[in-house]
Amino acid sequence: DPLSPQYLYPLPSTFYPLPPIVKLLFVCLGNICRSPAAENIMNHLAAEAGISSQIECDSAGTANYHSGNPPDRRMQAAATNRNIPMSGSARQFTKSDFTVFDLILAMDRENYANILALDPQGQYRDKVKLMCDFATQHPDREVPDPYYGGVEGFDYVIDLLTDACGGLLAHLKSTDFKNT
Ligand code: 4NP
Fold first, then answer.
1. Does 147 contact ligand 1 (Cβ within 6 A)?
2. Ligand 1 atom closest to Cα of 157?
3. pLDDT > 90: what percent of the chain?
4. Of the listed 33, 34, 72, 163, which one is catalytic?
5. 114 CB near ligand 1 (under 6 Å)
6. N or C: which end of the chain has fewer CB within 10 A?
């Protein structure tokens, strides 16, 4: 196969210095509203900025009630209204995510506490941040759970996450896509 790695890259990989790829995991409770929105907004902003090859995004929930489910229809509608395509299938956060990802972005303080509870030794604590720490245009410290509210709550989450994802992207660019 002429496209196999041995033909494309005949020398050892150290001869092909690739730009660093930062791996981001967005986490909420159910992984059907806020965190899939964050994942898809981040991918959208990275594509617009021409840096998709330097960022990998995924999302997870601290709970497993919705595992396997697509993003909530109301969140899909709110994202579509902003021209952001939404894809994904819910899964639960696991301990192995601590080693796979460089940065873990919690949507609210409860998610943050539930994530850190799985790291009793605190060895991964510095990888876990509150998503709103990167927002520059909103005073919120947490991304509000829109699940039991009306459409305006979903629109608000999209706008807040677009702000926070933009701030996170600027932060990653400023650190040359190295971890945090
Ligand atoms: P998310 O929203 O954490 O942003 O995905 C929720 C989804 C489902 C539930 C709560 C919040 N629930 O209770 O089923």
1. yes
2. 4
3. 86
4. 34
5. no
6. N
Q: Answer for the pair 110, 29: CB distance below 8 angstroms, yes or no.
A: yes
Distance from the Cα of residue 63 to its chain's centroid: 17
d(CA 37, CA 28): 10
The reported pLDDT for the residue numbered 5 is: 65
CA distance 103 to 16: 25
Q: What are 148's two structure tokens?
A: 């039991």
What does the radius of gyration of the chain's CA atoms come to, in whole angstroms?
17
Would residue 132 show up in a list of annotated catalytic residues for this protein?
no
pLDDT attached to residue 68: 98
Task: Record the pTM.
Answer: 0.91
pLDDT tens readout for residues 88-123: 999 999 999 999 999 999 999 999 999 999 999 999
